[in-house]
Amino acid sequence: MCGIAGVRRFDGAPVSRELLAEMGRRLHHRGPDDHGVWVEGSVGFAHARLAIIDVAGSAQPMAGPRTHITYNGEVLNYRELRTGLDYPFTTRGDTEVLLAMYDKYGPSGVGALRGQFAYAIHDSATGETHLFRDRLGILPLYYYATDTFFAFASEIKALLPVIESPRVDTASLHDFLAHRSVPAPYTFLDGVRKVPQGHHLVVRADGKVRIAPYWQLPAEGETLQVGPERAVELLDDALRNSVRDALVADVPVGAYLSGGVDSSLICALVARQRAGEGLHTFSAAFGDDRVDETEWARVAAKIVGSDHHETIVTAADFEENWARLSWFRDSPLSEPADVAVYRLAELARDHVKVVLSGEGSDELFGGYPKYRYARTTCLAGALPGAPLRALEGRLSPRQARLSVALRALSEPNYAERMRGWFAPFTARERTRLLGAPPERTVLAPYLDGRGDPLRRMLYADVHTWLADNLLERGDRMSMAASLELRPPFLDHRVAELAFRLPSAYKVRGGTTKWLVKEVARRHLPNDLVDRPKVGFKVPLDTWFRGHLREMAFDLLTGPSSFVGGICAESEVRRLLEAHISGTRDEQPRIWTLLSLEVWHRELQRHITSLTA
After folding, report:
1. Which of 291, 328, 379, 606 is spaced 20 to 30 A from 54 at the CA atom?
2. Distance between CA atoms of 371 and 49, rounded to whole angstroms?
């Protein structure tokens, strides 16, 4: 993967090469192998390259007969596409294939691409600049528009030099407390927008901007009428093809291996396709037996025959990396696992340049415990919320999962119940902290409660939780280590299949992710497939009562606290004291507020450096 940026002016002034170079420098971690700048009057591109395909060639920005491109990602079927193009190729990579596809098909050529990508093409003949983001939103793309210019970049930090007075979008603070991220198209900065997953944006010479989807998940009426055995065969074939494509590279490729079913299945499929070639795998542990999956990762590594590597993440890692990683993410770290994912990427980068992960399986195939309660989430509004809240208040800190369920199901409407499964704060808690929330309707299509309850829940999570949180985390934390991350479950063919298969094959007889587990049984032993899901959990409940206690109080209640200035201080202190006393487990909410504070301090430090 790489870093891209660009500026298009509408006032007749030329684009500054120095400005583009500065935008590119801010993306150096995404592409330390090479940097490039192209300027032609009122339009210009920058590029920071992490060379994965055609390592010695394919420098960017790249020129075609009438076009220029700056491109981040990998088109994994580029060799197949190349054979059908009559084009004067001068390189062996996928970048020039994108130029050739545009030359032949125009913007509609994006529909033939398989892979993960975010790219911009300027067409000198039409005067239009086109931006494309991949279907599932694996790779990021942001933009900032005014009456006089349009700018875009892979990360928000590269846009800061063009924003005169960067300000926090106050509505985004409510979003963060509700979602642990800011749903597209919004971001934490006023005026900065995300290109949503699967969208195409066009900038005309007169400054008008048009944006529309070029791809969507299958509609509910497109369900395949197949039996469970056939469904298992279809998914097995789709994953084999996706993993085969994900191995396309001219550099070493490894894989994350937690010992869970998703990463173990991906590694097993890699081992089958690369028999005898060797595979590096990587896992992280936290020195806490309650969340330690190290032994299962070792079991899986032995099964697939990989050269396995491990790293231990400690409380000190959080203090050391929290601020720096907030800057890399361009937002508060949504979960403690962000730090662990970064340490894992650091470990992997010592051995490979590309790594595969099992990301996306839970959201496509129903892996979280909440999916068992999809129908209940629809119907719970008929129940009085007060008794559920009272019951939740009497739970012990050890009953965390039940607490999450009661908090979600006690919400008064379907949209809030949907948010509630992942939300750090309920609607009532958000109002007590920040006041009444602003109205934003962008999520309405995902949270309306119509149709198959499980399908609706999965659809919402693919468009919000996955795209705006998990994929953003995966991209930023891997790119902070200059490592390319590829999730084979998010091949769009796998995603389309997931939404064409009956919901009954995802949660079946109370078993979550049933279909994936049945595929895994073809490649892995049953004891590994059937073991309880642990997930990438960090033992912050004890850390906040010990090593990180003083830091939490200082940052959230000190005189210079951003959170202390925007939130009700009494509510913040109540959370801290309840957790430290052991009467309640408030670590998800303490983490959320601390992350907001650390991010804002880091943002202000960098904004100050721009004007120094």
Report:
1. 328
2. 40
pLDDT tens string 183-204: 999 999 999 999 999 999 999 9
User: Which tokens hold the place of 407?
Assistant: 């908090």
267 in catalytic set: no
Q: How far apart are alpha carbons 296 and 528 in whole angstroms? A: 7
Cβ atoms of 163 and 156 closer than 8 Å: no
What's the DSSP call for residue 16? Answer: P
CA distances from 357 to 30, 85, 98, 254, 295 (A): 18, 32, 26, 9, 19
Whether 375 and 414 have beta carbons less than 8 Å apart is answered as no
Written as six digits, the tokens of 282 are 């990587």
User: Using CB atoms within 10 A of its CB, is residue 11 exposed (0-12), middle (13-18) or buried (19+)?
Assistant: exposed
Q: Which residue has the higher pLDDT, 339 or 136?
A: 136
Predicted pLDDT at 406: 80
Distance CA 158, CA 454 (A): 39
| Distance from C-alpha of 101 to C-alpha of 75, rounded to nearest angstrom | 12
User: Facing residues of 72 across strands?
Assistant: 118
Tokens of 114: 């398989």
Where residue 209 falls (left for φ over 0; alpha for ψ -120 to 50; beta otherwise) is beta
Q: Which of 263, 341, 343, 344 is nearest to 304 (CA)?
A: 263
DSSP state for residue 189 in the 8-state scheme? B
For residue 513, pLDDT over 60 is answered with yes
Q: What residues does 36 pair with on adjacent strands?
A: 47
- Give pLDDT tens digits for 446-467: 666 678 999 999 999 999 999 9
DSSP H stretches of helix in 106-227:
170-179
The dihedral of CA 437, 579, 537, 2: what is its sign? Answer: positive
3-state secondary structure of 369: helix
The answer for residues whose C-beta is within 8 angstroms of residue 355's C-beta and 6 or more apart is: 253, 254, 255, 256, 282, 345, 348, 478, 483, 484, 485, 486
Question: Which of 2, 267, 378, 567 is an active site residue?
Answer: 2
Computed on alpha carbons and rounded to an integer, the radius of gyration of the chain in Å comes to: 24
Alpha-carbon separation of residue 31 from 154, 293, 321, 328 (angstroms): 11, 32, 21, 14
Which of helix, strand or coil describes residue 40? strand
pLDDT tens string 21-61: 999 999 999 999 999 999 999 999 999 999 999 888 899 99
Compute the distance between CA of residue 469 and CA of residue 518 in angstroms, rounded to an integer. 28
- Distance of alpha carbon 172 from alpha carbon 180, whole angstroms: 10
Got the DSSP string for 194-232?
EPPTTEEEEE-TTS-EEEEES--PPPGGG-----HHHHH
| Residue 544, both tokens | 């906040």
Backbone angles phi, psi at 194, to 5 degrees: -95, 140
Contact 297/257 with Cβ under 8 angstroms? yes
> Of 330, 45, 6, 11, which is closest to residue 146 (Cα–Cα)?
11
Phi, psi for residue 546 in degrees, rounded to 5: -130, -100
What SS3 class is residue 23?
A: helix
What b/e readout covers 518-551, taking b as 16+ CB neighbours within 10 angstroms? bbbbebbeeebbeeeeeebbbbbbebbeeebeeb
148, two tokens: 């006089």
How many C-beta atoms surround the C-beta of residue 295 within 10 A? 10
